[in-house]
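assembly run, all chains below
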Amino acid sequence: MAAPSFGLSARSTLAVLERGLTLYRRLWRASVFGSFVLPVLFLVSIGIGVGGHIGQVGGVSYLAWIVPGVMASTAFQMAVGECTYPILGDFKWTRGFHAMRATPVGVGDMVCGHLLYILIRVEIAVVVFLGVTALFGTLHSPWALVTPLVCALVTLAVAAPTMAFAASIDHDSYFALLFRFVMIPATLFSGVFFPVGQLPGPVRPLAYVSPLWHGVELNRAATLGAAPPWPAAAHLGYLLAFTAAGMAWALHAFGRRLQD
Amino acid sequence: MVTTWIAARISPGRVGAVIGRNVGALRSGPAYWLVLVSGFFEPLLYLLSIGVGVGALVGELPVGGRSLDYATFVAPAMLAVSAMSGALAETTYNFFFKMKYSKTFEAVLATPVRPLEVALGELGWAMVRGSVYTALFLVVMVALGLTSPLGALAAFPATVLVGLAFGAIGMAVSTLMRGWQDFDLMSTGQFALFLFSGTFSPVTDYPAPLQVLVQLTPLYHAVELVRAPAIGQAGWGLLPHILYLLAMMAVGLLFAARRLRRTLTV
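ok done. output:
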């Protein structure tokens, strides 16, 4: 069959988004629990339990300190989750992308439509989470209002390359490796739970590579009203560059996969 | 009487054949070995991040009348969690797939193997797999000075019991699953247990009603049972935890066998 078109049009992209939302209507009950309740349970368990033994970090309560980190990592986890099995599944098991190829929808529409769908889901979760944490009294600055934008950027930076990875593999057991060697270490060592400065010098640059770290620091600067460790433009630039590279990879991987 | 009842129903050879089938199936997927081995890294990463990273913020923690280094407190809990999730990984996702999609158990039950033997064999295999992780984890704990070699030897059988109890319950739950979406609920429940079972901070940190609730859930008993020998505080007080986990295992196994018989044999 001919190579799939790389087209990108607003109408086709929105059609892909609509498909995602329609499918989500069947699943939302189970996911509400995961995306809203878990982060809150997390705050209660770690923030209050462990936080009670810690006291203050960087001049604020431990709970206030981890809230922006947990928020960014929620976006991170959702982005990875929505770009692994659902993407591979649409290539391999349900062949949803092959069905789209038979319509005017191009590869660009598929990638952008799916990204939009994830963005909507992440933003709903983040805004609810922000409201809950405001009730805990952990937001110290009106800049907290920009955290949904930071989370959107983290989502794009992570979702694009994860989609590309999912489109490039043949067997879902590679996801277990992605989770164990990339996602979990990134979550645990990106300054969500303890300052990256505590990491031994040689491994610290690994945290700087992780898009999550940049999101965490921007979020934290926003909710606490402090300056981030790097200039904000540097953090933002890194996330944007990561997104652009991920998108390019995703377009390439989708195009190749759909040639069969 | 119980032994004759069991002997009349179970043949070690047939249980062994179910385990053997799993060993043979290991070669089926690409990267399967790597996935299997990498399962060990997950609790280790948690230990390094929470135990060592957050531990540096916490300092010492008062536990049972003495002051414990935070990593020493958290490590045995991570070990118990690892025993739980190792066993569950095999007896939920894999078990469900074998039951519903690959029809493995229908094939197995077409031979002289009986439902209870299938359940025992699957649990046995989950144990082999989980025990490799926990043994490696204990070696790391000894190397980092988080427990003594003797404490590690004493904690190992505790982790085996934890794996058996959760593995059996996992199988029972899998026989009730309607589809993959139900697993989301299960993993959410598993994560909630992980957060509130005295893993990251002593249960006494919580308000009294929540403490009682936590003490009813299974992972709490698993964590207590593994932590005590690891920090050198084992005693008769552990008996209720042991009985709780044994009961879980028995109920899980019998229920799973019953459901397999009902749904897969005519």
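The mean pLDDT of chain B is 88.

The radius of gyration of chain B is 19 Å.

not gonna interpret more than that til we talk
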